[in-house]
Amino acid sequence: MNLESKLRGINSRPNLRARKAYIMVEVVVYLMIASLIFMSIGLIFRSSISIKTSIVNKIEMREMASVVEDRIRYEMNNSIGITRVWGKNTGETSYKNVRKIEYRAYDKLQKEVLLNKYISIEGDRIYVENEGKYQIGRHIETMDIDDKGDYMKYKLGFKIGKNTYSKKFILLKKL
């Protein structure tokens, strides 16, 4: 080997190391870009699942509110009148936070017999009670009633997770 070839070998080795270093930097940059893309896809996927869950919960609460409203309307329209309400005033409005309503109704089979019936909230479920309990809804958080005047204003509050829904309706009082 002559001196010239030895000098070429010495000069070519740093170039080979520099090329390997550039390849390593390129691989690291590509891995960082790929990880950012995968993290972005993961965040989009997670937020879309959260949005879907929120929409499903809101639809379920609206359906439940409609069913509970229909059942309360049915019970109150077939009653003689409300005899007692258990609850406390909410303070800032004329609404009263109610946990139980007692009302009188005729027996279905015998029109002369009067029964005491109840609509009550226990936990997150609402029931109609007579000789047993009949669940008419779930996910209920509050039932507020304003009974000033010739009608009663109902405000039902539902909650599933972080999602809430409020339903308001009016019923005429039975005299």
What do these coordinates show?
The protein has one helix at residues 3-77; strands at residues 79-89, 96-106, 114-122, 125-129, 133-138, 140-146, 151-160, 163-172. It has 175 residues and is an alpha+beta fold. Strand 2 and strand 3 form a beta hairpin. The relative contact order is 0.13.
Helix content: 40-55%
Mean pLDDT: 85
What does the overall shape look like? rod-shaped
Count of DSSP H/I helices: 1
Beta-strand segment tally: 8
In whole angstroms, how far apart are the ends? 120 Å
- Low-confidence runs of at least 5 consecutive residues: none
- Secondary-structure-derived class: alpha+beta
Indicate the radius of gyration in whole angstroms. Answer: 35 Å
